[in-house]
Amino acid sequence: MLSTELAELKAYMADNPGAVIEDVARERKVSPRAVLEAMPESMVRLGPGSEFAAAMNDVAQWGEVTLIVHTDDAIFEFTGAIPAGEIGRGYFNLMQPKGLHGHLRHERCAAIASVERPFMGRSSAFIAFINVDGGIMFKVFVGRDETRALRSDQLQRFHALAERIAPARAV
């Protein structure tokens, strides 16, 4: 990406931090990772994909969250507890027979983004698992309470996970 394009993307994301990441990526012909990296530094932290299993097993202890898979053709949402998993036969295997289960190609995870930003007039916090191509594998959103506020217990866990995976840089 040219420096002028990057500067324009950074300015756009500073003015529109709640923009749908995948839409911005498609419109500007960049990867979703590039969009995340262009967000204001106070809203996003990037850590290594090698923390995939640890991050997923941490999230498995949060309780009810929303997992979103956003493709060009659909947006799938699952609200519920994420099961714990383990690595075997080349996959991170979600270990439960019903509800959300499956096999994730953890080795394709190049980075993990912790994103906290406004979205549609509300605070939002999510973990984005970014693949080696710069795409978002899926996102796990901090849950909301009965007043639609972010669950404080999960937000604390989100911050702790973000700090473990991508410690804040000293200024």
What is the fold's blueprint, element by element?
Layout: H1 3-15, H2 21-28, H3 32-38, E1 44-48, H4 52-59, E2 64-70, E3 75-81, E4 85-88, E5 91-94, E6 102-104, E7 109-119, E8 122-131, E9 136-141, H5 152-165
Antiparallel strand pairs: 1-7, 2-3, 2-9, 4-5, 5-6, 7-8, 8-9
Describe the protein.
The protein is an alpha+beta fold. The chain has a single domain, classed as 3-Layer(aba) Sandwich (Heme iron utilization protein-like fold), CATH 3.40.1570.10. Helices cover 29% and strands 33% of the residues. The model has no long low-confidence stretch (mean pLDDT 94).
Search tags:
alpha+beta; globular; Coproporphyrinogen III oxidase; 171 residues; 29% helix; Heme_Transport_Util_sf; single chain; Heme iron utilization protein-like fold; 3-stranded antiparallel β-sheet; HutX-like
Distance between the terminal alpha carbons, to the nearest Å?
A: 27 Å
Helix content: 25-40%
The CATH superfamily is known as: HemS/ChuS/ChuX like domains
Total of domains: 1
How are the strands of the largest sheet arranged? 1-7-8-9-2-3
Number of strands: 9
Q: What is the string of helix and strand elements?
A: HHHEHEEEEEEEEH
Q: Poorly predicted ranges (pLDDT <50, ≥5 residues)?
A: none
CATH architecture: 3-Layer(aba) Sandwich
Global Rg: 16 Å
Q: What percent of residues are in strands?
A: 25-35%
Per DSSP, the total helix count is 5
Question: CATH topology, what is it called?
Answer: Heme iron utilization protein-like fold
Q: What is the overall shape?
A: globular
Structure class: alpha+beta
CATH class: Alpha Beta
